[in-house]
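Narrative of activities, Objective 1.

The group set out to show that a structural description can be obtained from nothing but a protein's sequence at a throughput compatible with the screening campaign. Below is one input-output pair from the validation batch, recorded exactly as produced.
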Amino acid sequence: MTKNLPKPTLLLERMNNALIQSKEEEDRQFVTALGRGLSLLAAFEHQDQLSHQQLCQMTALPKATITRLIYTLTTLGFLRITAHGQYELGSSAVRLSAAAWSRHDAVAFAEPLLRQFATQNEVSVNLATEIEGEMRYLACCRSPARLSVNLQVGSAVPVARTAIGRAFYAASLPTRQALIRSHLQDSLSTTDYSHAQTTLDQSAEYYQQHGHTLSDGEYSPDILAVAVGVFDVATGLYEYSLNASVPRANWKSDDYAAIIVPKLQALAESIGSGG
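Output recorded for this entry:
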């Protein structure tokens, strides 16, 4: 049965039309195989996971062609197969997406605010979003204080072991939380996944009570960090999270949170509202 299969997106339709036009015009400069591969990736514009059958229907390409494209894109890391035999965007596509996000308007707006915040409060502050069960850093401003972890735009850190990851999970809708857990289940051992799930559940409860998450030497033994979610008024969702970190030797966690969390929450509101 195919009645419930996703329909092609506008992007995919535009790409399919370009493929048809290049064939009709016998455009020798147009690389058809590349166009077909990019069309297959475009099918994921509004879908987290798709089956082989769904990809065939959405792209209108032969089954054998889809099989070869999937093999190539999986080998190159642009697709990955899930535990349920479906396909989703892989790490190579994620890296390209992260680079694009780093230049996104919201990030560009946030960067001067992050720099000002880091300077005024003598902390390192970072903006990130979740991709494939990891937190991908989109903007980073380091404190003048020397920290043991030097993260840059594009760096990835675990969701469950970091304040910034826990805050994103805690602020997200249940559907997004379920997707994060699915990614973690695919990538972690049974024992590690169980521990991660427990940590995230506890962090979500803590976030509801205190409005932030905390990592006191858990990801890096020298770092104390707090984090909050960033609500994007344009989408009506928590699209990012923010952390602020300092050397653990300089602060007690309760004192640090009491001082920096209200300021970090104000920063998150400013970034999320775009003004």
